[in-house]
Design goal:
Helices cover 20% and strands 30% of the residues. The chain has 618 residues and is α/β, with parallel strands linked by helices. It binds alpha-D-glucopyranuronic acid (GCU).
Length: 618
């Protein structure tokens, strides 16, 4: 009892901690449909491995100096100081520097920065005319990994986490005419970071997604959520939240196609809840990804969004979409384009990747191992593809470090905030392949509770691992991670036939499941070098990979409560852990689609299997 109480108290404290308050409150819902000015384009950059522009030679941070003295030293790169005359000694000049494209990573733009991990300063100018009765936010869809943001030499804010959005109110920092922004970006890997020092993907540093100015009225719609409570008696419930000086506002909630037009009034905290009871609501699902145009109209702005309504639940061994059993025909994908080798950040990248998933007859994608850009979720809504979204709590995180926990929690809350209205997103995954121990269990259990409290409309899982036991001399693979008690779906990665075991034995494996919950195999697969052909026993050949797919698919139904799987992985991707010359060359070759975009033999094995599965469902 006492432990339960302390645990509950811990949750409460962590939910109210300052960091959460900061990022959580200031994030703006559905930025892409607001009045915005893009700041994408060419930004000057300075490589600063010694953080010379951030710390004095005594190691004092110029930020602190700025706070203490009002003005930092001229050595602070964020002041963007230009020598005014021939006697003034300024040892940097952004305007003379080369440029990097934003969005984009420096690793794929400048050969000498391919392997670079450290600080790079970005700078650009832009013209702006402040408007009356408006607030202006500087929005970053993502910056990998730690960023410090300055506008006209003043600190706007900082952010940690490479895959989620953040924004700062810069209304009071902007001036009429020419303005400038300086961003310090540092992608140094750290033990206490999330992810930590070891990952099997490329550490693409930089301002990796869209940057924009968002102009909002003085009192603006900061947040809203729409959700379908129950597919049988369709009631759409939700809330709107205002920010600004005067939060008591009138809002019209309009869904023209459903002949809904309700006026609601927010309370002094800017919040109003609503319940809508539409007639003939078409439910969103892969076979019919129906989206409604939803409009929120206030005296100062109109925000529209495309939202699908569906329910997702578990019932013993089944995953139920709109009350009907669904099998997740999945594939994993990284946010990297195998044709360009670059970090994805556009609608076109999303079209390419999800287009291939559709070619596979997949109805589900596991976005590994971090929140991907928003174009993916919005396109998945349109295409009818279900999504697993994951937090980069990957392998061996610093479990006992409270700031690591706060960081992971903040990334989780930012990811949930951004995607709460996306019908396609059905599963929050809080971790991948983390070692079973008490500190890890407590860390993840706390994250799971926060996820449940923050969003009770989606399922929770984590990519776990199985262990082997011998029962009466028979080897049994046990799906028994203690975390299984706290998640909705029991997911695990397994690489029988690649990281151990003979693939021909796979159909005979004995499995033991310790929970009566749906089971999802979140990874399996094998590497293959495109164009390398040999017999099916020859490793790295397309035939070996195809054979592993065939045998795995032959035996996978022996896994109890199997509700779906997502093989590793849609396309080859870059990894600094893969040096094998002429085979890997710093690429993980487990893709079904090769570097360059070519489909390997195994692609068609899975495509055919999913086609049959689809026909079975009809
Ligand atoms: C792991 C891990 C992936 C990795 C894959 C592999 O299971 O989750 O990030 O890339 O296996 O080894 O290819």
């Amino acid at each position: 009892m006492k432990n339960k109480l302390t645990f509950k108290l811990l949750i409460l404290i962590s939910l109210l901690s300052p960091m959460t308050l900061l990022s959580q409150t200031s994030l703006i819902q559905n930025v892409y449909n607001r009045s915005t000015t893009s700041l994408n384009g060419d930004w000057h950059y300075i490589i600063d491995p010694y953080e010379n522009g951030f710390y004095s030679y005594r190691g004092h941070s110029f930020d602190e100096e700025a706070e203490l003295k009002g003005e930092p030293g001229t050595g602070a790169y964020f002041t963007n100081t230009i020598a005014k005359n021939k006697t003034e000694r300024i040892e940097y000049n952004f305007s003379m520097q080369p440029t990097l494209e934003v969005p984009g990573s420096w690793t794929t733009q400048v050969e000498e920065l391919k392997w670079y991990e450290g600080t790079v300063w970005y700078q650009r100018n832009f013209d702006y005319t402040p408007k009356d009765n408006s607030r202006v936010f500087l929005y970053f869809a993502a910056v990998n990994y730690e960023s410090h943001v300055y506008v006209n030499g003043k600190k706007a804010g900082s952010h940690i986490g490479g895959f989620t959005p953040f924004n700062f109110d810069v209304t009071d920092l902007l001036v009429q005419g020419e303005n400038f922004i300086v961003v310090k970006v540092d992608n140094t890997r750290k033990k206490e970071a999330v992810p930590t020092v070891n990952t099997d993907w490329w550490n693409h540093g930089g301002i990796t997604r869209d940057v924009m100015l968002v102009e909002l009225p003085e009192n603006y719609l900061q947040d809203y959520k729409f959700e379908l409570e129950d597919e049988n008696s369709p009631t759409i419930k939700g809330f709107v939240k205002f920010a600004g000086r005067d939060k008591e506002q009138e809002v019209t909630v309009k869904i023209a196609e459903l002949e809904i037009e309700n006026i609601i009034r927010t309370n002094k905290d800017g919040i109003a809840h609503f319940n809508l009871t539409p007639k003939n609501l078409e439910l969103w699902e892969p076979g019919n990804p129906h989206l409604y145009t939803v409009e929120l109209i206030t005296s100062d702005e109109k925000v529209s969004d495309r939202i699908g309504f569906r329910t997702i639940q578990v019932n013993d061994s089944d995953i139920l979409l709109n009350g009907k059993k669904v099998f997740l025909r999945g594939i994993c994908m990284h946010e990297e384009n195998p044709i360009t080798g670059k970090r994805n950040f556009t609608h076109e990248d999303a079209e390419l990747m999800l287009g291939w998933a559709k070619d596979l007859n997949a109805n589900f994608v596991r976005l590994a191992h971090y929140p991907h850009n928003e174009y993916v979720h919005r396109l998945a809504d349109e295409l009818g593809i279900l999504i697993w979204e994951e937090l980069p709590v990957y392998w061996t995180i610093d479990w006992t470090n409270r700031s690591t926990f706060e960081n992971a929690k903040n990334q989780l809350l930012e990811a949930i905030f951004r995607n709460k209205n996306r019908a396609s997103v059905i599963i929050w995954s809080i971790a991948n392949e983390t070692p079973v121990n008490e500190n890890r269990n407590n860390f993840l259990k706390e994250l799971i509770s926060i996820t449940r409290t923050t969003d009770s409309t989606r399922l929770i899982s984590a990519a776990m691992e199985v262990h082997s036991e011998f029962v009466e001399n028979n080897s049994v693979k046990v799906i028994g991670d203690p975390l299984g008690e706290f998640v909705d779906i029991i997911s695990f990665n397994q690489y029988h036939g690649w990281y151990g075991g003979n693939i021909d034995d796979f159909p005979n494996i004995n499995w033991r499941l310790d929970y009566n919950k749906p089971v999802f195999v979140s990874e399996w697969g094998a590497g293959a070098k495109y164009g390398f052909h040999a017999d099916k026993q020859t490793i790295w050949s397309e035939e070996y990979q195809a054979h592993l797919y065939t045998k795995t698919l032959e035996g996978i139904d022996r896994i109890p409560n199997l509700a779906g799987f997502s093989p590793w992985i849609l396309s080859d991707f870059k990894s600094p852990r893969r040096p094998l010359t002429n085979i890997q060359d710093m690429w993980n070759r487990k893709g079904l689609i090769a570097e360059g975009g070519h489909k390997k033999k195994a692609f068609f094995v899975l495509q055919h299997y999913y086609e049959n599965k689809l026909n079975e469902e009809d």
